Amino acid sequence: MDANRRQSGIQQLLAAEQEAQQIVNAARAAKSARLRQAKEEAEREIAEYRAQMEAEFQRKVAESSGDSGANVKRLEQETAEKIEQLKQQAASISSDVIQMLLRHVTTVKN
Any long-range contacts for 62-69 (C-beta under 8 Å, 24+ apart)? Predict the structure, then answer.
């Protein structure tokens, strides 16, 4: 009788082990499927984002290249205005700078 009970206990343990293995395998398969699905969703989102950024980039390129002649003229005009301002500022303070330099050069300190 003890041998039958042991055999029966061993059979139950083996059955429980097989059942546990099936549960673990099912969990692994489900995890693998979830990971695959998440990867596909991420790739899809990345593709959408990349397409959106590319479209925005192309729009900005089209905007900036469409009136590049106007931009060049505007920049040349702004540069000329700034050069003229700097010349006027230099002319207005040049006499003061010359006087300051002469004062410092001609002053002897002991």
Answer: none
Please report, as a single letter, which amino acid is at residue 71. N
- Amino acid 88 reads Q
Q: Is the CB of residue 103 less than 8 Å from the CB of residue 110? A: no
What the block records as the tokens of 99 is 């006087």
Q: Which two tokens stand for residue 7?
A: 């055999």
Residue with tokens 């593709």: 47
Which whole number is the average pLDDT over 76-101? Answer: 91
- Name the band, by pLDDT with cuts 50, 70 and 90, for residue 101: confident
Please, what sign has the CA dihedral across residues 101, 105, 106, 110? positive
Closest of 36, 37, 13, 17 to residue 25, by C-alpha: 17
